[in-house]
């Protein structure tokens, strides 16, 4: 029988992490409207928008690369799905979670582009949820599915970078 924390993790995985970050962004928008935090001005504001654009686009490119690798391998992209094989090349040589890394990059970029200082706080909450519930649950599933191959991979490659 699954424990309460395992059931909660499955529920959070089913929602999928892009939704977590979208909710964090919406919450940041609401908080910024309700409790206006100062944002960069002048040249700093322009620089933050440029940096945000670069980060968001890097995140998008990384996500597209990861999606292409999953399609080549003919395995699922869906968290909580039933993967048919391990993807261990491309960015997966350096991080076990480059798709999630792409979400974080894109999220931070959007927070900078849209002048959302609250986004840093709400983004940390989404990242905490991802790192403490979603990823451990997925890693347990991957270990159960791929056994020694996944154990060896996770020994070689870090969770983030």
Question: How would you describe the overall organization of this protein?
Answer:
There is one protein chain. The chain has 161 residues and is mostly helical. It has one domain (41-156). The chain contains 5 helices and no strands. Helix 3 packs antiparallel against helix 4. The longest helix is centred in the C-terminal third of the chain and has 39 residues, at 118-156. The model has no long low-confidence stretch (mean pLDDT 91).
The parts where pLDDT drops under 50 for at least 5 residues are none
The number of domains is: 1
Structural class: mainly alpha
Kindly state the mean pLDDT as a whole number? 91
Q: What separation lies between the terminal Cα atoms?
A: 34 Å
**Elements, N to C (H/E):** HHHHH
Helix content class: over 70%
Strand content: under 5%
The largest sheet is:
none
* Overall form: globular
As a whole number of angstroms, the C-alpha radius of gyration is: 17 Å
Count of runs of 4 or more consecutive helical residues: 5
Strands, total number: 0
Topology:
Blueprint: H1 4-15, H2 17-34, H3 42-73, H4 98-113, H5 118-156
Helix pairs in contact: 1-5, 2-4, 2-5, 3-4, 4-5
List the keywords.
single chain; 161 residues; mainly alpha; 5 helices; 0% strand; globular
